[in-house]
């Protein structure tokens, strides 16, 4: 008899199950449009040239060792990361009221931020504070906040399936009706999974209500640079909120824009009212980090830090990021053209209007099932596709398959 | 008014504060006997030659990329790490009932194990199950389990200050009188901070009571190989418990024995009754990992896996480990000899009887204060010293300082 005999089998994470099924499929024309990682036009992972270069510099640098990093992480990484999000000339940074917690990817940054808020926001250990996540959102948001102890996680209106765009009225209404001090998880750009972001005017409306109703701003920024090709453009919303005087958190991930998925490079940027508040916050962040991973891993942070802090490498990196963003934009463009050329029923403008890695195709679950089972084109049940999975070699097959799904399956 | 104005300042982690004070000290003869990291005879951090070699191999291996690792980590790391703990020929491994979760150092492994046990051990979400940690123990044990949700973290008798050794009777007494199913955190070897381990006979007595009273075995193994110089010797207790049929956890750290402190290389080895139970346990571990760090960092795990899985590199590593262990043993022998030569009151046999990085000197808080303030020798308030901080250059000064502290301060 095992002490674990009552432990139930947990279901697999959907997106990884999809990739596992894809791997086992032997169909020669199979396409994986599931998990969110960049692929080249040869369907290969891409180690950024600047990353390869910096890895070599690091291994040859005899001044480096493997001693523990500080609990909050590599100082030059933290400051450079926050600068990338907020801008070099950020008044908040100059005002010494911005800090960073090096974390394990975007997930780790969200988790540490959530743990802090559950302990110290809106009263002490107030697990009843509502946390709002967009409908739909990244599949892990809900669980991260729930495991941090929050008992009330709710959706806010976001995706309008009928018009295939942002449900602004619903979103603003939820902001007006949410209990004061509720926490809102906002996607800084390239919304996952819809690819649909508020316009600047829409962000302004969102900010006005959030300030008036004292709602907490928690940005999730996983695609800065990757979405439009421009770091500044992709950070506009964050910088606007900071300029409006919000105290806020930004969970930054460098998984996608540095292609450093498996080195777990993230940063929780904290914008506080002043340095005194910031100091106390960071001291409590240390306590949370200490009982979770003690101190963060060095390799990825060193790569990012070296790159961001060196003008030539920084320029090279931006070039690499633009390469990725441009390929995605090209695939968006071509997919839309091909669907229009095929005369596939429906409008396909959303494919080029949406931004970032993902597109919400609008395919329904039956059509998705057809795509997978009959065409061996793997996508999420929600109809989300990863544009990076498209290449000049497979795009005709994918367009053709979507056409079939839409015309044959209701 | 800040939303964070009520957040209190957290006290710094003692061992890091000590190092900070040391760093700020200008005294030319200062010595840091605080934080637990290996130092060479020049007082420098040491990158193991085998690690340097493998890092170069990795950076030049163009087959490697930065795609996400599986949630449970790099497979070849997990299996080789568990083999190190349990032995190549472990029947439990051959029976397919041993699994592992790659974690963020020993801390991360303890955290994952604790989170799992709180959810699924001794009933569902039973936060009242007592968790016993040794008195004294690593300063972070208590907080890791508390933050995982356990409400009742208690000490078990361990250190006998009078006789400067193991309080076996007290320890066994606690095992007999604790509630059934209580969780016990056991130090696999090189107990931190006392350096005092049970003998094999004593472990057998401990195991007998634990089996009879259905207590949960959670080993913390941070010094395998580092303690005696022999991987097998340092894993004797872990392997004995496995051979006795326990289902158990072992949190392994490769920070010290690979000198990879800042790459956060750890492994939670899970020994279950059979493969089916193991499978369900690991599926739930995935859920916990997913909301904490999603998937673990690659660099450190690749270094360790490459080393452990290559016969030549493995031998080179064992040799590097022995280099470190031998230097510590030399410093132990010399410190004892010098104190005896000085005629310092008291017995100093415990310095060579204790094992691993740390020694519980027996200095009281006043004497410790004298050491830090008057002699600029930094050690923990408990009297714990890190033997790695001793070198042939500073050992005379340290011995004399201890002599002064013992003779002039009561």
Automatic annotation (TrEMBL), chain A:
Kindly list the GO molecular function terms attached to this UniProt entry: L-aspartate:2-oxoglutarate aminotransferase activity; L-cysteine transaminase activity; pyridoxal phosphate binding
**Cofactors per UniProt?**
pyridoxal 5'-phosphate
The GO annotation for biological process reads: aspartate biosynthetic process
Organism domain of life: Eukaryota
Domain Aminotransferase class I/classII large: from-to ranges: 29-402
Q: Which Pfam families match?
A: Aminotran_1_2 (PF00155)
Q: How does it assemble?
A: Homodimer.
* Misc. remarks from the entry: In eukaryotes there are cytoplasmic, mitochondrial and chloroplastic isozymes.
What is the designated name of this protein?
Aspartate aminotransferase
UniProtKB/TrEMBL annotation, chain B:
GO MF terms held by the record: L-aspartate:2-oxoglutarate aminotransferase activity; L-cysteine transaminase activity; pyridoxal phosphate binding
Any keyword Zinc?
no
Which domain of life, per UniProt?
Eukaryota
List the SUPFAM superfamilies: PLP-dependent transferases (SSF53383)
Q: Does the keyword RNA-binding apply?
A: no
Task: Tell me what reaction this enzyme catalyses.
Answer: (2S)-2-aminobutanoate + 2-oxoglutarate = 2-oxobutanoate + L-glutamate; L-cysteine + 2-oxoglutarate = 2-oxo-3-sulfanylpropanoate + L-glutamate; L-aspartate + 2-oxoglutarate = oxaloacetate + L-glutamate; 3-sulfino-L-alanine + 2-oxoglutarate = 3-sulfinopyruvate + L-glutamate
Cofactor field:
pyridoxal 5'-phosphate
Record-annotated Aminotransferase class I/classII large domain positions:
29-402
Q: List, alphabetically, the InterPro entries matched.
A: Aminotransferase_I/II_large, Asp_trans, NHTrfase_class1_PyrdxlP-BS, PyrdxlP-dep_Trfase, PyrdxlP-dep_Trfase_major, PyrdxlP-dep_Trfase_small
User: What is its EC class?
Assistant: transferase
Tell me a GO biological process for this protein: aspartate biosynthetic process
- E.C. number: 2.6.1.1
Q: Which UniProt keywords apply?
A: Amino-acid biosynthesis, Aminotransferase, Cytoplasm, Pyridoxal phosphate, Transferase
Q: Can you say where in the cell this protein is located?
A: Cytoplasm
Quote the cellular component terms of the Gene Ontology held in the record: cytosol
Query: Gene3D superfamilies recorded for this chain?
Result: Aspartate Aminotransferase, domain 1, Type I PLP-dependent aspartate aminotransferase-like (Major domain)
Q: What else is known?
A: In eukaryotes there are cytoplasmic, mitochondrial and chloroplastic isozymes.
The family line of this record is: Belongs to the class-I pyridoxal-phosphate-dependent aminotransferase family.
Which PANTHER family does UniProt cross-reference here? Answer: ASPARTATE AMINOTRANSFERASE
Describe its assembly: Homodimer.
Among NCBIfam families, the record links this protein to: PRK09257.1 (NF006719)
The protein's name is Aspartate aminotransferase
């Amino acid at each position: 008899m095992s002490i674990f005999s009552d432990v139930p089998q947990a279901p697999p994470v959907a997106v990884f199950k999809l990739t596992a099924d894809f791997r086992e499929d032997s169909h020669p024309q199979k396409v994986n449009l599931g998990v969110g990682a960049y692929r080249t036009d040869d369907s290969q992972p891409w180690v950024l040239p600047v990353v390869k270069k910096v890895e070599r510099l690091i291994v040859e640098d005899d001044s480096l060792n493997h001693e523990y990093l500080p609990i909050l992480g590599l100082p030059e990484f933290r400051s450079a990361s926050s600068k990338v999000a907020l801008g070099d000339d950020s008044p908040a940074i100059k005002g010494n009221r911005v800090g960073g917690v090096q974390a394990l990817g975007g997930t780790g940054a969200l988790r540490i931020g959530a743990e802090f808020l559950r302990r110290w926001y809106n009263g002490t250990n107030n697990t009843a504070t509502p946390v709002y996540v967009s409908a739909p959102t990244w599949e892990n948001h809900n669980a991260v906040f729930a495991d941090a102890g929050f008992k009330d996680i709710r959706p806010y209106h976001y995706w309008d399936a009928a018009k295939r765009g942002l449900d602004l009225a619903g979103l603003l209404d939820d902001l007006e009706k949410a209990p004061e001090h509720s926490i809102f998880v906002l996607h800084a750009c390239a919304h996952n999974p819809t690819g649909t972001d508020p316009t600047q005017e829409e962000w302004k409306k969102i900010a006005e209500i959030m300030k008036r109703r004292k709602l907490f701003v928690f940005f999730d920024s996983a695609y800065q640079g990757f979405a439009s090709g421009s770091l500044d453009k992709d950070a506009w919303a964050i910088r606007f909120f900071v300029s409006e005087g919000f105290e806020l958190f930004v969970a930054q991930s460098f998984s996608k824009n540095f292609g450093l998925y498996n080195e777990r490079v993230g940063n929780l940027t904290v914008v506080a009212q002043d340095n005194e508040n910031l100091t106390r916050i960071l001291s409590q962040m240390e306590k949370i980090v200490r009982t979770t991973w003690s101190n963060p891993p060095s390799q990825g942070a060193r790569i990012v830090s070296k790159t961001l802090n060196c003008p030539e490498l920084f320029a090279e990196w931006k070039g690499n990021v633009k390469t990725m963003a441009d390929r995605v934009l090209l695939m968006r463009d071509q997919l839309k053209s091909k669907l229009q050329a095929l005369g596939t029923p429906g409008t396909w403008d959303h494919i080029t209007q949406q931004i970032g890695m993902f597109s919400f195709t609008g395919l329904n679950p039956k059509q998705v099932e057809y795509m997978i089972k009959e065409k061996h084109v793997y996508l999420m049940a929600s109809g989300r596709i990863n544009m990076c999975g498209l290449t000049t070699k497979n795009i005709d097959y994918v367009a053709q398959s979507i056409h079939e799904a839409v015309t044959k399956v209701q | 008014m800040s939303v964070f104005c009520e957040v209190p300042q957290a006290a710094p982690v003692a061992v890091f504060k000590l190092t900070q004070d040391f760093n700020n000290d200008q005294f030319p003869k200062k010595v840091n006997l605080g934080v637990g990291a290996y130092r060479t005879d020049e007082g420098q951090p040491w990158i193991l030659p085998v690690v340097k070699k493998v890092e170069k191999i990795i950076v030049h291996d163009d087959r490697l990329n930065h795609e996400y690792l599986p949630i449970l980590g790099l497979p070849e790391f997990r299996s080789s790490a568990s083999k190190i703990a349990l032995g190549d020929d472990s029947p439990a491994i051959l029976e397919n009932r041993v699994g592992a979760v790659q974690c963020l150092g020993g801390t991360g492994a303890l955290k994952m194990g604790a989170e799992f046990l709180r959810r699924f051990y001794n009933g569902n979400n039973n936060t009242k199950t007592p968790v016993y940690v040794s008195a004294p123990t690593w300063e972070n044990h208590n907080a890791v389990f508390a933050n995982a949700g356990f409400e009742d973290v208690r000490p078990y008798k361990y250190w006998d200050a009078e006789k400067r050794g193991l309080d076996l009777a007290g320890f066994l007494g606690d095992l007999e009188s604790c509630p059934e199913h209580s969780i016990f955190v056991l130090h696999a070897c090189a107990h931190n901070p006392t350096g005092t381990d049970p003998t094999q006979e004593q472990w057998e007595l401990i195991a007998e009571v634990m089996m009879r009273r259905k207590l949960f075995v959670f080993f913390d193994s941070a010094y395998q190989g580092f303690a005696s110089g022999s991987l097998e010797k340092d894993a004797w207790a872990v392997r004995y418990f496995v051979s006795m049929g326990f289902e158990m956890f072992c949190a392994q750290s490769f920070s010290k024995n690979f000198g990879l402190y800042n790459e956060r290389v750890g492994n939670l080895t899970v020994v279950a009754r059979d493969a089916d139970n193991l499978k369900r346990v690991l599926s739930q571990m995935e859920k916990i990992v997913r909301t904490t760090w999603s998937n673990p960092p690659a660099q450190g795990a690749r270094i360790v896996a490459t080393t452990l899985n290559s016969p030549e590199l493995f031998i080179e590593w064992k040799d590097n480990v022995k280099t470190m262990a031998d230097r510590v043993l030399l410093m132990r022998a010399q410190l004892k000899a010098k104190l005896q030569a000085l005629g310092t009151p008291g017995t100093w046999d415990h310095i060579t009887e204790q094992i691993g990085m740390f020694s519980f000197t027996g200095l009281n808080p006043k004497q410790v204060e004298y050491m830090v303030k008057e002699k600029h020798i930094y050690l923990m308030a408990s009297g714990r010293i890190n033997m790695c901080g001793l070198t042939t250059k500073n050992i005379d000064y340290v011995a004399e300082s201890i002599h002064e502290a013992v003779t002039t301060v009561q």
